[in-house]
Amino acid sequence: MAFDKKLLEIVACPVCKGKLEYNKDAQQLICKADKLVYPINDGIPVLLENKAEPLAE
């Protein structure tokens, strides 16, 4: 199942409520404000703060 890019219009970072960017190759959502990366598993974004990883610069 692929991630539906239309979700980017309604999903937000659970920490700062800011916009998320989609990384298709890594299947991740990125919050540049908080420097966090959220995984996408089977097309479903896992927007839990404890599942986020630090953004590699």
Unreliable stretches covering 5 or more consecutive residues: none
User: What does the radius of gyration come to?
Assistant: 10 Å
Pattern of helices and strands: EEEEE
| Count of DSSP-assigned helices | 0
Mean of all residue-level pLDDT scores: 94
Shape: globular
Number of strand segments: 5
Distance between the termini: 29 Å
The percentage of residues in β strands lies in 25-35%
What structural category do the secondary elements indicate?
Answer: mainly beta
Into which percent range does the helicity of residues fall? under 10%
Oligomeric state of the chains present here = single chain
Strand and helix layout:
Layout: E1 21-23, E2 28-31, E3 36-41, E4 44-45, E5 53-54
Molecular structure report:
The chain has no helices and 5 strands. The model has no long low-confidence stretch (mean pLDDT 94). Strands 1, 2, 3, 4 and 5 form a 5-stranded antiparallel β-sheet that branches. It is mainly beta. The termini are far apart.
